[in-house]
Write a structure and sequence with these properties.
Blueprint lengths: L1 H13 L3 H12 L4 H8 L5 H40 L18 H15 L3 E2 L5 E3 H4 L31 E3 L4 H11 L3 E10 L10 E11 L4 H16 L6 E8 L2 E14 L2 E4 L4 E11 L1 H6 L8 E8 H9 L6 H4 L2 H6 L17
Parallel strand pairs: 1-4
Antiparallel strand pairs: 2-3, 4-5, 5-10, 6-7, 7-8, 7-9, 9-10
Helix pairs in contact: 1-4, 2-4, 5-8
Bound molecules: ligand 2U9.
Protein name: Phenylalanine--tRNA ligase alpha subunit
Pfam families: Phe_tRNA-synt_N, tRNA-synt_2d
Subunit structure: Tetramer of two alpha and two beta subunits.
């Protein structure tokens, strides 16, 4: 029995891994192991012999089992130590970059425009996108029979039967905001009104919602010369050129008299637009001296005050500045497409190291 003990305790001490240990367990204390065989021999012994051998075999079994358990724990500890030594994390590595949102190109251009006019003393006025047809049309000298009021261009709000409130529309321009500003602030006045407007139109150069910025300057002695200077300063600053030539072309708008469309000198070469040089002219906005009826509609005396107004499409001049050919891109394209047109701000670096491409 001492032989058995020495043999198995020796083997257990030498076991290199858990599978070796399991093999020793089966051979020693398994159902068909050596200790079990010896137990079976107890039956052939005399009662006196049995009384000595029985407890001794049980003690041997216990001793082998506890040696197995101790060795198993030792092997597990060693395995864990080995894993801790080989598997490790470098917590100083930078984290994976995360994508960060940024301003939509239209908002970005709107901010550029606002900043340029702010330097010339214009503040921003805002108003509702749903307004009465009086603010959107009548106050702007657009009478009921004017084609701009036709159902096809204007989105009218649904009115329940018996609703006697004045008809409401989705504003077709930001001009109603200027009427409201005149009512609220009086003259003299220098404001721009940027924001979304709505017209029932959809093709390569029209979307049912687009953005305008309109400007209004009212004082006792404002002339078209002031208008020209303000627009020149704006164009130079927005298109980042030192010089620009503006051309006023006689036009007609119900809310201005006289009215002028404004072209800028430019060149188109190999699909590239250059502002301020060349033999082409490109229309960028409409403008004029505010019609006396419109000044009166805003609650200001047209005998005392006069002024200029202008309006331009933000989406359109954003397309010109950034070379985007289709207006619909602003509404249904993905970021890769806009990045192609140079909106680097969309690639703003994330906290650690920027976008991976
Ligand atoms: C008030 C008085 C006058 C705003 C003006 C235009 C000319 C004009 C178009 C440009 C491109 C609209 O986005 S567009 O399609 N606008 O040509 N807008 S003068 O005149 C006003 C506005 C408000 C009280």
């Amino acid at each position: 029995m001492d032989d058995l003990k020495a043999k198995y305790l020796g083997q257990i001490a030498e076991a290199a891994d858990e599978s070796a240990l399991e093999a020793i367990r089966l051979a020693a204390v398994g159902k068909k192991g050596e200790v079990a065989l010896k137990m079976r021999e107890l039956g052939k012994m005399t009662p006196e012999e049995r009384q000595v051998a029985g407890p001794a075999l049980n003690a041997l079994k216990d001793e082998i089992n506890s040696a197995l358990a101790a060795k198993k724990a030792g092997l597990e500890d060693a395995a864990l130590d080995e894993r801790l030594r080989t598997e490790w994390l470098d917590v100083t590595l930078p984290s994976r970059p995360t994508r960060q949102g940024s301003l939509h190109p239209i908002s970005q251009v709107q901010e550029e425009i606002t900043a340029i006019f702010a330097e010339m003393g214009f503040s921003v006025a805002e108003g509702p996108r749903i307004d009465t047809d009086w603010y959107n049309f009548d106050a702007l000298n657009i009478p009921g029979h004017h084609p701009a009021r036709a159902e096809m261009d204007t989105f009218y709000m649904h009115r329940a039967e018996g609703d006697n409130r004045p008809p409401h529309v989705l504003r077709t321009h930001t001009s109603p905001v200027q009427i409201r500003a005149m009512e609220k602030m009086g003259a003299p006045l220098r404001i721009i009104c940027p924001g979304g407007v709505y017209r029932a139109d959809y093709d390569q150069t029209h979307t049912p919602m687009f953005h305008q910025v309109e400007g209004l300057a009212l004082d006792k002695d404002i002339s078209m010369a002031n208008l020209k200077w303000v627009l020149e300063e704006f164009v130079k600053s927005f298109f980042e050129v030192d010089d620009v030539e503006l051309r006023f072309r006689a036009s007609h708008f119900p809310f201005t008299e006289p009215s002028a469309e404004v072209d800028i000198r430019c060149s188109w070469q190999d699909g590239t637009l250059k502002i301020g040089e060349g033999d082409d002219w490109m229309e960028i906005l409409g403008s004029g001296m505010v019609h006396p009826k419109v000044i009166a509609a805003g609650g200001i005396d047209p005998e005392v005050y006069q002024g200029f107004a202008f309006g331009m499409g933000i989406d359109r001049i954003a397309m010109l500045k950034y070379g985007i050919p289709d207006l619909r891109a602003f509404f249904d394209s993905d970021l890769r497409w806009l990045r192609h047109y140079g909106f680097q701000s969309l690639d703003m670096p994330a906290l650690h190291g920027g976008l991976s491409r």
